[in-house]
Every structure is written in C-alpha cells, then in structure tokens.
Amino acid sequence: MIDADPSRVWALVADPARLSEWAGVVTVGYMGTELPKPGQRIFVKTLRSLLPGRHHRVDIEKWQAGSAVSCVIDADRASIRFEVAIRPLVEREQIVTQVRLAQRSETASYLALFTQWRQDSRLDRMLDRIDKAALR
C-alpha cells in the first residue's frame, strides 16, 4: 500500500521519462510524445553505480491507462515478463493505492531459489522507491 493518490502513482509508473525514479533504468533514444501502447518498443539502460549499465529492449504487451502495464524485457539470454498494476482503495479519510509488481522469467531449477530471492529484493526496492517518489 502506498499512502498516495492513485493518479500520482500512475503518473509516476506510467511515464517512461520517470523510470529512473523507481525502476533503476533510463530510456535510451527518442520516445516520442505519445503514451506507450501495446506493440510499442522502447529501449532502456540500467543504472549502475559501479558497473556500466546494460541496454535492454522493452516491448509493451498490455496498456490499461490508469491501472496496469505489462511488458517483455529482452535480457541477455532470456526474456523477462514484468507487470505493474495499481488499484485505488478508499479508506475512512483518504484514498490510498495498492501497487502490485510482478516479474517472471525462466531459470534453471538449481537457480530458482536464488533467482526468486533476487527478484523479490529488487521488487521490494522498486516499491520503496515508488512510495517515496509518489509523495514528492
């Protein structure tokens, strides 16, 4: 749960120019001025402090304005499915936002536990950054 208005959270997570604030990547090349849509391809570069960032192709699969976006990220030798979804929840005196991040990738069975731990840690950091950035 994020103690912020859903429109502020959506404005953050849906804007490719603001990916660095919560996802740890920046867009590379011209994005255009239109909103992302299914079938659109963007390129991102990871932000790394010690190592040079890597470039990835991101294909938008689903775009539901105001509530969800899912994409496929072309990573090294595999692809990663990533989804962010938000849902407003009305509480007694305010509205808050439920954020769900999901990431799926194929991995060898002997690496499954490590991969799960690494993905969960990364998603938790993203949620923390979304929480902080949405309050600005």
Summarize the structure in words.
The protein is α+β, with helices and mostly antiparallel strands and 136 residues long. It has a single domain, classed as Alpha-D-Glucose-1,6-Bisphosphate, Chain A, domain 4, CATH 3.30.530.20. It has three helices and six strands; from the N terminus they run ααββββββα. Strands 1-2-3-4-5-6 form a six-stranded antiparallel beta sheet. A hairpin with a 3-residue loop joins strand 3 and strand 4. It is globular and about 50 Å long.
Concise description?
Helices cover 26% and strands 38% of the residues.
The average pLDDT score comes to 87
| CATH superfamily (homologous) name | START domain
**How big is the Rg?**
15 Å
Gross geometry = globular
Strand content: 35-45%
Using the coordinates above, name the CATH class: Alpha Beta
Which key terms come to mind for this protein?
136 residues; alpha+beta; Alpha-D-Glucose-1,6-Bisphosphate, Chain A, domain 4; 6-stranded antiparallel sheet; 3 helices
Describe the secondary structure blueprint for this structure.
Layout: H1 6-13, H2 19-22, E1 25-28, E2 41-46, E3 55-64, E4 68-75, E5 78-90, E6 95-105, H3 112-134
Helix pairs in contact: 1-3
